[in-house]
Amino acid sequence: MIALMVQLNNDAAKAEFSRRLHLAMDNAGYEVRGRARKLASQFSVSDKGAGKWLNGEAIPETHRIAAIALWLGVSGEWLLTGKDHSEDIHDNVEAAPRLKGLVPVINEVQAGHWTEIKTGFDESDISEWVPTQRANSRYSFGLRVVGDSMFNPYEKKSLSEGMVVIVDPEVPAQHRSLVVARLSNSEKATVKELVLDGDNHFLRPFNQQYSVIPITEGVIIIGVVVGAYSSFI
After folding, report:
1. CA gap 93, 58 in Å, rounded
2. Sheet-wide strand order for 178-182
3. pTM here?
4. Is 173 helix (H, G, I), strand (E, B) or coil?
5. Cα 31 from chain centroid?
6. How confident is the model over 138-161, as pLDDT tens digits?
């Protein structure tokens, strides 16, 4: 891949990469105006750096090409070289929904204080990003499920330990929403179902071996779970 990047690091290759990047962003529905700012925000680079990708002045690093391709729902090979073997698939495999972006995976303590730290959070420290199939708000994040309190094979939204939930702080919480909350006696965030029963509000675990948690003063709803991601490797 290093040799390929060196080979492609010329003016013609940069111009072709820029053309394919614009085409992919066209197909993904992004307006031409503001594309550099969108790329810069999504991939933690400067507006000037993202502008060079769009203007045919530079090609991103290999790991960023893979992330950009995932974000735009195209193959990294096509984005980099123009070649694509996506048609070589089995007849019994359907195309997956177009991916809409990537969100950073943060830990339980960071999630518990996300409301306070999100605006100054340094994404360059993030080691794991996961894809999403919906357009999320700017401060959406991923949180890995710990424990079995949300596992129940009879619940449609059952969550197994190790899965990553996608959390959007801008989505309004409603009755039966899965939410990430911080309890008054904890620094860590927890995932539970929000139950609104008249004047009684509480957080319900799917696993009946755990007790429901009344929502009292000091409990903070961080965001609503809008999806889940699981990897087999």
Report:
1. 36
2. 129-132, 101-106, 141-144, 164-168, 220-229, 178-182, 189-197, 200-204, 213-214
3. 0.63
4. coil
5. 21
6. 889 999 999 999 999 999 999 999
pLDDT, tens digit, 9 for 90 and up, residues 29-86: 889 999 999 998 888 889 999 999 999 998 887 678 878 888 888 888 788 888 764 5
Q: For the domain bounded by 101-229, which CATH number is listed?
A: 2.10.109.10
The distance from CA 23 to its chain's CA centroid, rounded to whole angstroms, is 22
Give the span between the Cα atoms of 16 and 79, in whole angstroms: 9
Taken as a whole, the chain contains a residue count of: 233
**Which residue in this structure is represented by tokens 């330990």?**
161
Q: Helix crossing, 62-72 with 35-43: angle to 10°? A: 110
Residue 171 backbone phi and psi in degrees, to 5: -80, 125
Helix, strand, or coil (residue 126): coil
Rounded Cα distance between 154 and 206, Å, is 9
Q: What architecture is domain 2-81?
A: Orthogonal Bundle (1.10)
